[in-house]
Amino acid sequence: MRYTLRIWRQAGPDEAGSLVPYQVDGITPDMSFLEMLDVLNERLVAEGSEPVAFDHDCREGICGACGLMINGVAHGPQRATTACQLHMRRLDPARPITIEPWRARPFPVLRDLVVDRSALDRIIEAGGYISAPTGSAPEANSLPVPKSDADAAFTAAACIGCGACVAACPNGSATLFTAAKVTHLGLLPQGQAERHTRAVAMLTTQDALGFGGCTLTGECTAACPKEIPLSTITRLNHDILR
């Protein structure tokens, strides 16, 4: 199959960028989206051109590095799927594909499709951990946790920190990410001691880094590859108000 691509090319953070058209041939339906970009880059290198820079690591939908806007949708058209797990059979060869980096003020473009997402790390550093000394690991069943809390904590802990929620949000808010990190710790017994100070510290850091405010539009949950629910944000708000 042949695809027509329009890819954002930007030489550096201080350079102007633009969408550049490409044609890529020999694409099979079972190729992943990143494998398609690999094919394009192999051709560009063979031609002596600069390959397209894009971020990736595990290519298994686990690490969250493969953040791309595909036809204006974070991670592409398939729900609950990262860009690395999106297969080309999901995209119509008759329609051009526009590929852009995450668009958010705290995510500056480093080069082409690669953005600096370290702002999310700063939010984690502000309180996304348990610092209370608890000694050695306890026996698994020694601290009973209600099943509803355990299920909600596991759901929130599935967040891979890809930043799709930020890219999809019209306000550029990272509140779903912050809420997921606050929730999965705050629902467990070990996280109770710092539950409320953690929520305040992480949300304050989020605001200081330039992320927008949450207005509960729900675009974040629609784009989230791990389907973190909007109710996670209500838990964050609850801890803030407490």
CATH class of the largest domain: Mainly Alpha
Tell me the Rg in angstroms.
Answer: 20 Å
For the report, how would you describe the main beta sheet?
Answer: 5 strands, mixed
Distance between the termini: 56 Å
The spatial strand order of the largest sheet comes to: 2-1-5-3-4
Q: Judging by the overall fold, what is the CATH architecture of the largest domain?
A: Orthogonal Bundle
Instruction: Quickly count the domains.
Output: 2
Q: What string gives the helices and strands in order?
A: EEHEEEEEHHHHHHH
User: Superfamily at the CATH H level of the largest domain?
Assistant: Alpha-helical ferredoxin
Coarse morphology = elongated
Task: Describe the structure in your own words.
It is a single chain. This protein starts with a strand and ends with a helix. The chain has 242 residues and is an alpha+beta fold. Helix 5 runs antiparallel to helix 6 (195-208). The protein has helices at residues 33-46, 118-125, 147-157, 164-168, 175-186, 195-208, 219-223, 231-241; strands at 3-9, 18-24, 69-70, 73-74, 97-100, 109-111, 114-115.
